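We store chain and fold; example below:
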Amino acid sequence: MFWIKVLMRRVKNMYLAFLVGAFFFGLMRTFLFKWYILVMLTERDLKKIDILFTKRIGEEFKRELEPVKKDISGIKSEVVGVKQELEPMKKDIAGIKGELVPIKKDIVEIRKDQKTIVSFFDTEYLDLRDRVEVIERRLNIGL
C-alpha cells in the first residue's frame, strides 16, 4: 500500500499510476492466491490433524480420568460395606414392625376402655351429686 502511494506521487500521469497500481494489485492477488494454495489444508491433512488431536485429548482425558476411577471404585466398595451393615438393621426393623402391630391394637383397646371408665365415673358422679342434693334439701342443709 505504501509503495503504491509513493509511485502515484512520483508518476504525474494518472493513467500510468493506474497501470502501476493495477500491476501491484495483481501481484498482491497472485501472491495471496499462491500462498493460500500452499497453506490450504487437504482432506488428508485434516484427518491427520484430527487423529493427532484425538490422540492427545484422549491421553489427557485418560490421565485425568484415572484418579476419578480410583475414587469411584473406593466409593463403590464403601457403598457395598454400608449395604452389608444395613442388612441386619433391615431385619431388626422388620421384626420391630411386627412387634408394633399388637402394641398398636392394645393401645386402641386401652383408649376404648379409658373412655368407658371415664364415662362410667362421670355418670356415677352425676348420680351421686343428685343424691347429695336431694339429701341436702330434705335436711335443709345448704352449703
Notes: Residues 79 and 85 are 10 Å apart (CA to CA). DSSP finds three helices and no strands in the chain. The chain has a mean pLDDT of 77. Helices lie at 2-10, 14-39, 43-139.
